[in-house]
Write a structure and sequence with these properties.
Blueprint (H helix, E strand, L loop, with lengths): L5 H6 L7 E2 L2 E2 L13 H13 L10 H20 L14 H19 L1
Antiparallel strand pairs: 1-2
Length: 114
């Protein structure tokens, strides 16, 4: 059985290097706000520094770069989760939005079937 290396994972999250009352920070409120690993922080910084713009809504250079990066992320995630098509990947802001989207989609399918 493979050992779970907690310290290695903690090193990926800069915020977890803090101490609170002399103890390593433990964050258990992920349902509210998830902490970001360094790779996500670096990617967001790159986005804001290099091509911060709306996706799918403009025709200027920065928007084209942002749209391309967004669609490339959709393809990568689709491959990672073995989705039949990258077009099935839908990005949402959080869990509540995702649940509502699924519920509303399911309700529409039921209405069309009747």
């Amino acid at each position: 059985m493979r050992k779970f290396d907690v310290e290695s994972i903690r090193r990926d999250f800069p915020i977890l290097s803090q101490e609170v009352h002399g103890k390593p920070l433990i964050y258990l409120d992920s349902a509210n706000t998830s902490q970001k690993p360094q790779v996500v922080i670096d990617t967001l910084t790159d986005y804001y520094e290099q091509y911060n713009s709306n996706i799918h809504r403009a025709t200027h250079h920065l928007s084209e770069l942002a749209t391309k990066a967004y669609e490339e992320a959709r393809v990568k995630i689709g491959k990672f989760i073995n989705a039949p098509s990258h077009k099935e990947i839908v990005f949402v802001r959080g869990c509540t939005e995702a649940i509502n989207l699924v519920a509303h989609s399911y309700a529409r399918k039921q209405l069309k079937a009747d």
